[in-house]
Each structure stands twice: as C-alpha cells, then as structure tokens.
Amino acid sequence: MSSKEPLISVIMSVYNREEYVAEAVESILGQTLADFEFIIVDDGSTDRSVEIVQQYAGQDQRIRFILNKTNLGLPACRNIGIKNALGKYLALMDSDDVSLPERFEGQTAYLDEHPQVWVLGTRVMKINAQGQPLKEWKLPENQYVIKWNSIFRNAGVVCNPSVMLRRELFTLVSEYDESAKSYEDLELWTRVFNFTEFWIRNLPEILLLYRVHDDSISGGNAYDLHSKPNEIRANLLSTFLQRKVDVIAISAYESRQPLNMADVNNIIPLWFETYRKFSRDFHLSRKEKCMIYQEILKRTPAYTSLIPFSKNMWVISFLPLLQPTHVFWMTLARIYNLLSEI
Asked: Which of 23, 31, 72, 323 is the most exposed place for a label (fewest CB within 10 A)?
C-alpha cells in the first residue's frame, strides 16, 4: 500500500464463494478509478475462497486480506472493514456480485459535487447464478422517497452492495449492529432516518450486477428477512408518530394480503397520518408530496372496495384493473392535495 491514504476503501466479506469471488474481485480491480484500497474479510470459509483471494492479494498491493478464525457474520465483517478503512469514502461490495467499471468514478464524482448526500446507491441489474440478466432493479432517486421507503418497504431504499458512503457516517450513527444478521443494512438505514442532514440517494445508472441464487443472503429464512425487518420498521414508525404502531401496518404496505375490515380501517388512516407528518417534518415540495402520495394510493385499492379514507377522497376497487399510469397517480395525488389543502 502507498503511504498516501486512498480515496476509497472497498469492504467485501467472503464466506464460501469460490464460484463467484474471482469475478467479484476482478470487477473491483478493473475500476476506471484506481485510487482505492480493497479490504477483503474472509469469514471462516471452508472452500477454496481463501486460496482464490490470496492469489489476487499476491498480485495487487491494494488488497488487504483479513482472515477470521471463526464465522462471525456479515455485519461483524463489515465492522472489521470499517475499523481498518483509511479512505474518505467506503464502498460496499458482496462477493457474489459484479461492479461495473465506471461505478467508483461515477459515485465519487457525485459525492464530491453533493456534500449533503452521505449514502449513494445505484440502479442495478439482477442476474442469475450464471450471470445472465434477469431484471433491472429501479431504485428511487429522491432522498425523501427513499426515506419514506425506509419505513415501509423491504426493497425501496438502496441495493446495499451498490452503496458508497462517507466514512464519517459511522462516527455519528455507530457501526453495524452485529446481532442484526441478514438485515443489518435495514437496521442502519432506520438509524440514519433520524438525521435530516444525511441524504440517501441512488444514481439512475446501472453500476452493479446483483446476483440472485439459492445461496445468496436474500435466500434467508422468512423470519429474518421479513418478520424482524418489519418489527424494526414498526419501532421506527412508533418513534416517529410518538405512539405504538402494530407491525401489521408495515407488513400490509407491501404484502397486500387480505385483511379484515377492522385492520383496514386502522391501517389506511395511519398511512395518511404518517404522510401528513412526514410532509410537514421534512418540508416536502409539492412534487415530492405527489411522489409519495401516489405510492400510498397504489396500495389502498388492494384492501378496500369503497371506503372513505378522508372527507375528500374515496378509493375504488376497480382502479388496479385499469392499470393506471404514473401520470394518472400524479394527477390523482395533486387533486387530493388541492382538495385537502395539504
């Protein structure tokens, strides 16, 4: 390593990824912006992962390879990387994904130009185990839509291995919760929620290939990946509204499963109560209000046939059958805002 501190510290945990880790490492070493250190933490692999990484470490001095004696879990490995990092920016990376060559160049340029942005993700392309494209994952760009999603949605904040963030963030919100295995990133973003000065954004360009396969973290058990995250979000919303919120208000936002009328009559008004406080507290523009409001409006028809959720607006069950466009929802949200004088 050079005596000069690198601009970026790349942090990647490895655990039994012999099939994919070489491609992941090469995608980092092939970045168009080369001013980085590459901290790789092996978490007790029992396959050839250590051997593969050691070969690359022997060829490129930017790699710093750390071996855990026992398996500690992803959040602990990330914390080890953070404690050893020297860069101004931290770039997260998973050992089964692929960073496109311009990723670091694009993210550092944006962060340099936007000092209010502390966490920056990108759009990604989902790929299968063989590397074939599956579907583009379009993540929101607006910081308030992202902040709203950190309350209600499992997949609407950032794609974590695409993230680059400012190292100072961890001096203010502390490191990853090592007990939050498989949902450590969500737990972190809910803590960032309370800092209005920390903006989270996503670039509109695809700069990461996100691999989906049977052994990926997204294939974890249902409790870890759904129940516990929903509990964390319910606690966040309870703190935000300063009253207890049932976890069903969170799970219903995305699941759209059948609910009884009592739950519907409680949940939908709570969503709009949250929206009104959120709009006031974060001083949303008219456009930002509409962006979030349409997200709520798209969900309410799944639960109701003809139920008034305010004195000015009704939700009708046949709206999903019409497959309304983005413009439709924007217009509907604008009408509601005008009527309600929000």
From this structure: 323
Quick: pLDDT tens for 198-252: 899 999 999 999 999 887 655 444 444 468 888 999 999 999 999 999 998 898 8
Neighbours of 281 (CB within 10 A): 10
Phi, psi of 150 (to 5 degrees): -65, -20
Q: Is residue 183 part of a domain?
A: yes
Q: Which of 208, 122, 130 is nearest to 165 (CA)?
A: 122
Whole-number Å distance between alpha carbons of 121 and 165: 9
d(CA 101, CA 29): 9
User: Do 200 and 326 lie in a common domain?
Assistant: no
For residues 12 and 41, what is the distance between their CA atoms, to the nearest angstrom? 6
Per the prediction, the chain carries an average pLDDT of 85
Burial class of residue 218 in the structure, from the number of CB atoms within 10 Å of its CB (0-12 exposed, 13-18 middle, 19+ buried): middle
Element (H, E) at 186: helix 184-192
Structurally, the chain folds into a number of domains equal to: 2
Q: In the predicted model, is pLDDT for residue 94 greater than 90?
A: yes
Domain assignment present for residue 225? The answer is no
Q: Provide the residue range defining the domain that includes 252.
A: 244-340
Indicate whether 95 belongs to any domain: yes
Q: 37 near 7, Cβ under 8 Å?
A: no
Buried b or exposed e, range 150-179, using 16+ CB within 10 angstroms: bbbbbebbbbbbbbbbbeebbeebebbeee
Same structural domain, 184 and 304: no
